[in-house]
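Researcher: Re-running this chain for the archive, since the previous output was lost when a drive failed. Same request as before.
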Amino acid sequence: MLFIQLLIFSLIFFAAPLVVGQFFVEKAPKHAEGVFAWVSGQMLLWAVFQVICVPLVLREQSFLLLVSLYLGVTVLLALGGMVYGIVRRKQAYSLRGRTGKEKAPTQSVTKVLWLIFVILFVVQLVLAVLLAYEEGDDAYYVSVTA
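Model: Regenerated C-alpha cells:
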C-alpha cells in the first residue's frame, strides 16, 4: 500500500507539473528547461486548483467533487502538455536537422541551480516543522465547526 501511495505522490508532485509545464518551456533558457517546466506546471496547477476549490468551498460542496474535478482538469492539462511537448520536439528536431547542432547546456549552471533548489526546499521543510504550532485560531475553529 505504501508503494502505491508513493507512486501516486510521485505522479502528482513530479510528473504532472513537469508535463503540464511543457506549455511554457519555449520561454525557458535551454539549460533549465526541466526545472522551468516543473515550476511553471506547479504554478498553473495551483492556480487551477484555486479556481476550482474556492467556488466549491463557498457552495459547501463535497470534497469528493473537488478531488474529481481537479483530477479531471489535471489529466486534461497533462495530456495537452504531452501532445504540445511532442509536437514542439518534432518541430525542433526537424529545424535542428537543417540548421546544425544546438548549443549544449552548461552542466555547472544546472548543478548550481539544482543545489539552490534543494537547499531552499529543505529550509522550507525544516521551518514548516519548527514553526508549526498546535492551536492557531483560524485553523482550529474552522475545522471544529465544519
